[in-house]
Amino acid sequence: MLYGEGAVNxxxxxxxxxxxxxxxxxxxxxxxxxxxxxxxxxxxAALPHSVARAFLDEHIPLGSVSVFVQQVGEKRPLxxxxxxxxxxxxxxxxxxxxxxxxxxxxxxxxxxxEAYADGRVADGVLDGNLVLKGYGDPKIxxxxxxxxxASLRATGLASIRGDLVLDRSYFATRPHDPAAFDxxxxxxxxxxxxxxxxxxxxxRFVFAPNAAGDAAQVRxxxxxxxxxxxxxxxxxxxxxxxxxxxxxxxxxxxxxxxxASFAGRYPGTCGERDWYVALLDHRHYVHxxxxxxxxxxGGAFAGGVRDGKAPAGAKPLATLWSAPLYDAVRDVxxxxxxxxxxxxxxxxxTSAYPPPATTAHAAAAVRGWLARRKLHFPExxxxxxxxLSRRERISAKSMAELLLAAxxxxxxxxxxxxxSVAATDGTVRKRFVDDDVADRALLKTGTLEGxxxxxxxxxxxxxxxxxxxxxxxxxNAARAQRALDLLVEDVYAGAFxxxxx
Length: 501
Fold this sequence. Notes:
With about 500 residues, this protein is an alpha/beta fold. The protein has 2 domains: about 50-110 and about 325-495, Beta-lactamase (3-Layer(aba) Sandwich); about 110-320, D-tyrosyl-trna(Tyr) Deacylase, Chain: A (3-Layer(bba) Sandwich). The protein has helices spanning about 1-45, 50-55, 95-105, 140-155, 280-295, 325-335, 340-350, 360-370, 395-405, 410-415, 480-495; strands spanning about 65-70, 80, 110-120, 125-135, 160, 165, 200-210, 215-220, 225-230, 235, 250-255, 260, 265, 275-280, 300, 305, 320, 420, 440-450, 450-460, 465-475. Strands 3, 4, 5, 6, 15, 16 and 17 form a 7-stranded mixed beta sheet that branches. Strands 2-1-21-20-19-18 form a 6-stranded antiparallel beta sheet, with helices on both faces. It has a 3-stranded antiparallel beta sheet with strand order 8-7-14, with no helix packed on it. Strand 7 (about 200-210) and strand 8 form a beta hairpin. Helix 3 packs across helix 7, helix 4 (about 140-155) crosses helix 5 and helix 7 (about 340-350) packs across helix 8 (about 360-370). The protein is globular and about 75 Å long.
């Protein structure tokens, strides 16, 4: 009986122990859930209510948002929400590339493009090939290319009996698929980098009503022989709207030849409009450009085109120098030019490694520069330096630290002036138009499918300056603009009390 009684009491105590363990487990789980909820609430509280509400109203969870705001000269941020989370920054990655370029290459750095005679020149005739050697100039325009041709003609050269040889060896040439990123191979922003890039490898189709006002006319700039243009366009009285959809446009693109046809209707209310399209490959585009403008300059040339090397030890017949780097940086940031950014990124490789330049060497050059500046960005991933990438990553805090370093840099003036001015120019010329922050924010924007980003400086009251960074990575990111703009407006208005907390 004692045994049985003792057994019952022991069983009861064991049961109570198991029950207590269950209760403890439940309490512990509740505690963990509460802690997680409090952490999430604290993270949400880090954002101003109006900004958080604007994200949530567009079904963008705050876990998909990263923000960092700090006043210049203060040690602690005014606002920090998921600051160390690696995020896709889209085109704000250009801020890293351009700052590195200004410091590593120098604001007055210039690219060159050289022309060599590979053969004997006598009485204005080159009995051999003409070699064009590129060094990665990101912006050789039609006018600049014509000036190179004019310089060649000024030497007395009139006839070339050989081929056009392109020395593109300054950059490592790798196969480039312009459709790989987003399935839009004819978009100029998808043109691959090249040591001898001319006119972004693109042509401009210009549409306008004719003089009689009874039809639409189309012209192509530059008028390259390998690109055939056909079709007729009638005029209609519709609103301009989505005018391209009515053109019934058709493009057939090849490496050596391309065709463009427009056989629909063009709204007369549009006036003159243009459409840029990337046609031909790099080699044949340069060949077509040279053949056209050499002929226009009165020269004779009927040769083909191939890759090769400039003759060793030869002196160039003519050299085309680019505009200074600070001009290129302005185009890269204000206009968010992806092709120029990729050219610039590859050029960075040559600051630390001998050519040919590779993206791996460019990324290593940037990492070395950051290390020397004691900027530690372990999450940084740079694929092409333009932000036109699904792989590139940086955190909001790292981007803010970069902006703070740039604000104290010797290249500050050239860097800051390259950013878009709110409601004035660049990619934010149509934003903040009716807001007090107009003309008081210098910003770089970023846009990809599933990504919206904004980073730069806000010039507040009383001479205060702030760095502002916000990244949104979410399928609904396209709806984030109002929240991003509210953040900038709140910073300008001093909604955070003007001091770090």
